[in-house]
Amino acid sequence: MSTGRNLLIASVVVNVFLAGALAGGAVWIRSGKPAQGYSLEAAGGRLPDQQRTLFRKALREVRQESREIIRDGQQARREAADLLRQPVLDTAALSAALERARNADVTVRTRLEQRIVEFAAAASTEDRNMLAEGLARRGGTQPSATPKKSP
């Protein structure tokens, strides 16, 4: 009887989990909105279709050009994870692996930001304003007010 009861409890738990997953998925699909998060690509989401396509293409090119650096960062994170699993922690090796991962991330981020600068330099004032709004919205801040002139 105990085994049957355990199976029943496990079945109820699994069914509740699946029902929650289905409900969450349905809400996500119906909302039609990607998760609210901060990304440089998301900042261009309000650009006109043609400009948004060019913006995303430019950022995709940076990621393709940076594939090796991205892989190095991923490898460094895997090494850090492996080091954390060791019975005796090698803090120097862990610090070095995390530094390599961080340097890779910063390099890719710098390249992406530079491409945004190049895109913005060729964009209209209207498109730059849309990018600014996207960055402010995704960064969790409100657009700043116009600075007041000193008397």
Written description of the protein model:
- Residues 141-151 have a biased composition (Polar residues).
- Pfam families: Metal_resist.
- Residues 131-151 are annotated as: Disordered.
- InterPro entries: Metal_resist (IPR025961).
- The chain has 151 residues and is an all-alpha fold.
- The protein has a domain at 39-132: Up-down Bundle (Four Helix Bundle (Hemerythrin (Met), subunit A)).
- The chain is 74% helix and 0% strand.
- It has five helices and no strands.
- It has helices at 2-31, 49-65, 67-85, 91-122, 125-138.
- Helix 2 runs antiparallel to helix 4 and helix 3 packs antiparallel against helix 4.
- The chain starts with a helix and ends in a 13-residue tail after the last helix.
- The model has no long low-confidence stretch (mean pLDDT 81).
- What integer is the average pLDDT? 81
Which CATH C-level class of the domain at 39-132 is it?
Mainly Alpha
Number of helices: 5
Low-confidence stretches: none
The CATH architecture category of the domain at 39-132 equals: Up-down Bundle
Shape: flat
In total, the number of strands is 0
Structural class: mainly alpha
Elements, N to C (H/E): HHHHH
Rg calc: 23 Å
The major beta sheet can be summarized as: none
List the helices and strands and how they pair.
Blueprint: H1 2-31, H2 49-65, H3 67-85, H4 91-122, H5 125-138
Task: Using brief descriptors, characterize the structure shown.
151 residues, Metal_resist, single chain, Four Helix Bundle (Hemerythrin (Met), subunit A)
State the gist of this model.
The protein is an all-alpha fold and 151 residues long.
